[in-house]
Predict the structure.
Amino acid sequence: MSSPENEKAFLIGVAHGNITKHVVDEHLDELSLLAETAGAVVAGRIVQNLDKINPKYFLGKGKAEQVINQAKELDVKLIIFDEDLTPAQIKNYMELADNIKVIDRSALILDIFKQHAQTRESKTQVELAYNQYLLPRLTRQWTHLERQMGGIGTRAGMGETQIEVDRRIIRTKISKLKKELESIEKERTTQSQNRKSEFRAALVGYTNAGKSTLFKCLTGSDVYIQDQLFATLDTTIRRVQLSDAQSCLLSDTVGFIRKLPHHLVASFRSTLKEVLDADLLIIVLDLSSPFMKDHLSTINSVLKDLDADKLPQLLVLNKADLVNNADRIRDSINAFPNSVAVSALESLRIDQLKNKILKIMEQNFQTVEIEIPYEKGKIISDAQEGVVVENREYLETGVKLTIRGNRTRIEQIQSALMP
């Protein structure tokens, strides 16, 4: 799949069943943002009403031919469907379209992820998802694999077609990438174990809702921020100081989007494990978007796929600076219980957000008294890390501490005192 950079593109949407033209237009608005993020120039959009999907071209055959002819007239080199096309439909369009590329939404999102992947982990994840997407869609257009073979022992065996050879190459690649991801995941699990004693919050949200801006505002960390979809692919973890005595670890993860390709969700499971390991999910929504409720529905759907829908949640309605109507802000807060409206860009109401995180964090706190002999100096020092020391009393035999902290940390300190 070559990058659609600077290519003129048509967007195709279909209204059928419960999907109205209004909904299709909204979906195509998002597809347009995706296409622009990939570097394409949107030359037009086409919406067709269908009673049923055509198994051969998705659209009716006449409409499919009309779209291709229109594209040729306007020198459009790329046609993007908002729905996923079957391998057979892509093959049929290739025969119909000559040198015009026809791709679906999943292929476009994969292309964007390939452009944005920076680290070894995200590159491996995207490469795996791409190859899994490609495998059932192999046709004669993928002759580039032929050039990768070469050498004795790699030529096709008798009776084995080039496509069969290409499929074998991709299956081998998928197997290798899966092993590489397992190795990366082991490293991540080890790092995660080291952070287990601390309260962990994860930012999740619709892509472009301002998660990275909020992350930077809360942590002071210099993270990459761009006003485009999927600017962040790699999970970043930093410490947030919530009060003089308390802090937590905060992670920023890849943004969600409706109809996120299944292979991508599966491949990014190790990155999204930060979400599964969190004590609190901070769901970031764009308060200025008219589709906020739809976005929340998409987020909850992806969280359910990840088995993370039962974790405690806090809703953050970001970009309040873009909403001039105070009534709308108040109505939104009332419509979403347990929410706080902020502007990460303007640093508005960030203290209110920190207090909410702190209150949720303290629900999991307990207070205990412990006595530590003076000769165990290291344990005395360690026992005062990551907790609030409410009282310190010096006895003849040792120090008596009254400490308050999250249960996991308290258990760690108590187990260190066991003989």
Residues 333 and 339 are 6 Å apart (CA to CA). The chain has four domains: 8-112, 118-192, 198-362, 365-417. The first strand starts at residue 8 and ends at 15. DSSP finds 15 helices and 13 strands in the chain.
